[in-house]
Design goal:
Shape: rod-shaped
Strand content: under 5%
Order of helices and strands: HHHH
Radius of gyration: 21 Å
Largest sheet: none
Helix content: over 70%
Number of strands: 0
Length: 98
């Protein structure tokens, strides 16, 4: 049972890291497009928005994966709260024995 919980924790961390990578990738790609648009149009606001999105991309970068492997909390807005499964398994055991 302990091994299963450990594997669930590992799975949850991997999913959170995956979502962080997706956010970082999208932010950097949009930043590149906005920086290119700034070069073409000359609108300075586009460059500042590109800088901001680039910073978001760095904040969610894959470097955070290394921290996640060490057990440090990772920056994630996509994590789901953990469910308490102990009540369900207790009631299932009661039904099987009773």
């Amino acid at each position: 049972m302990a091994r299963a919980r450990e594997m669930e924790t590992k799975r949850d961390r991997a999913m959170a890291a995956y979502h962080n990578y997706e956010i970082a990738s999208a932010a950097v790609q949009i930043a590149i497009v906005l920086a290119s648009a700034q070069i073409i149009t000359g609108v300075a606001a586009l460059l500042w928005i590109a800088y901001a999105l680039g910073a978001i991309g760095v904040a969610f970068s894959p470097d955070r994966l290394l921290l996640a492997e060490r057990g440090a909390p990772i920056l994630s807005f996509t994590e789901r709260p953990q469910r308490d499964r102990s009540d369900r398994s207790r009631s299932r055991r009661r039904a099987e024995t009773g």
